[in-house]
Amino acid sequence: MTGTPSAPGSGALSLCGVCTENRCCIGPLDIFLDDEDRTRLGITTETISIEGEGPCRFLGERGCVFGSRKPFMCSIYPVAPMLPLEPLRLGSHETCPCAGEELGEQATAARRAIQQKLRTADGRKLVRKIAEYYDGELTPLK
Ligand code: SF4
Ligand code: SF4
After folding, report:
1. 25: closest CA among 56, 52, 61, 66?
2. Which of 36, 44, 91, 134 is the most exposed place for a label (fewest CB within 10 A)?
3. Are 96 and 11 in contact (CB under 8 A)?
4. pTM exceeds 0.85 for this model
5. Helix, strand, or coil here: 8?
6. How far apart are CA 8 and CA 28, in angstroms?
7. Nearest CA, atom 8, ligand 2
8. Rounded distance between C-alpha atoms, residue 107 and residue 2, angstroms
9. Ligand 1 pocket: which of 66, 72, 77, 130 to mutate (most atoms <8 Å of CB)?
10. Least confident of 7-21, 23-37, 99-113
11. Does 78 score more than 70 pLDDT?
12. What was the pLDDT predicted at 61?
């Protein structure tokens, strides 16, 4: 459960830390996990759930304690897949102050990571769960 602490919050790439409140790690929130996440992180549950408005139990003083090993869903945030999954379209989540901005390399990396997940049944299930979870809360990326 250790790793190099990342910048505050969950966002995968350069934008994380833009907001100082770590909004992406504050509940209420569900982080869905696939087998790959569970094996990597040593977590046995399907979901990391944050009930109420408190912080995720994995949010340390210097950001996510998992660092770059954080759950897939967190690693692509604020980017998320939109429904329907085909053709793949991406949006940014409204909770993040970067929503609606052009996310450039972050969006490209997230797209690549999502496409990789879509190659397996388990990964596909995870991508669908994420898309359903954020449905209606995403601003389409240009
Ligand atoms: S697992 Fe890490 S990145 Fe994800 S919500 Fe919790 S602290 Fe944030
Ligand atoms: S909400 Fe957005 S800007 Fe704030 S820490 Fe998370 S990814 Fe970074």
Report:
1. 56
2. 44
3. yes
4. yes
5. coil
6. 18
7. 16
8. 27
9. 66
10. 7-21
11. yes
12. 83
